[in-house]
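Weekly structure sync, notes
Attendees: PL (lead), two postdocs, one rotation student
Agenda item 3: pending single-chain targets
PL asked that the sequence for the first pending target be pasted directly into the notes so everyone works from the same version. It is reproduced below exactly as submitted, 312 residues in total.
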Amino acid sequence: MDKKKIIIDCDPGYDDAVALLLAAGNPNVEVLGITTIAGNQTLEKVTRNALRIAKLAHLDHVSVAAGSARPLLRDQVVVAANIHGESGLDGCTLPEADYTVDQRNAAQFIIDTVMREPPQTVTLVPIGPLTNIALAVRMEPRIVERVKEVVLMGGGCHIGNIKPMAEFNIENDPEAAHIVFEEKWPIVMIGLDLTYQALATAEVKNEIAAIDTDAARFLTQVLARFSETYKRSKGFDEPPVHDPCAVAYVIDPTMMQVRKAPVHVEYRGLYTNGMTVVDLRKPAPEDCHTSVALKLDHKRFWDMIIAAVKNL
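Predicted structure, written out during the meeting:
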């Protein structure tokens, strides 16, 4: 089987860390690069976290490129310190990275990588705000026809988390999200409808804690702290790990129920700013380029993550 070539655009972040471990430990994935975006914490902090996770996960041969520190048009992003802490990964032990970021901006790195690789072989996996992806496609529109697909964590068909109908990643830069969704590349939206099913249950955490690897010990810390902050901030007894769902879909899309549906981003509404407006009233038109994930096979999802951590 040919490996799935991906670029992960992220803002680590507890659940971003899980996504990076899954990508690093799965034998069917080739990580071509990691790009960072301000979101769960400031750009400086999430980039440092990405470098350190890459070292732990044996991805220190992979380029890490820092991207935008703020949205396209709006004020500085409001970070999620209430969930991820002041460092973005409070309570977790990681090695210090002994290599530096790529000199290119994340958008330029994405362009260079997509244009270098054969057409239709690179999947973009954005799991933070979509500013870097929007900048890349505006700088080099030809990447639209060369990208295999965009599998993003963000949005929701029926629900929000930062606002009643707006999810954090989309609401942080709705203009960027609008640009990305309106381009005609294939998009799979892994939104809250799906990710709220990806709960880190006590059984899952116990199984991971029994694995004797550095990656498993780190993941145990991640899930323990994520459980505490999600319980305090959101009232969840078990935390949903949103971001690895996008990586899991790339590896094995059959573990999710996905439906084609038109998706547009609201960026001017007084109460709906950042909403992903998904039309599920009838079958999608033949030329629909967007799909939404609705149902997760919870056991297969966690089995995949556990296998990846064992491999590391």
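Discussion points:
- The chain has one domain: 4-311.
- The radius of gyration is 18 Å.
Action: rotation student to compare against the earlier draft before next sync.
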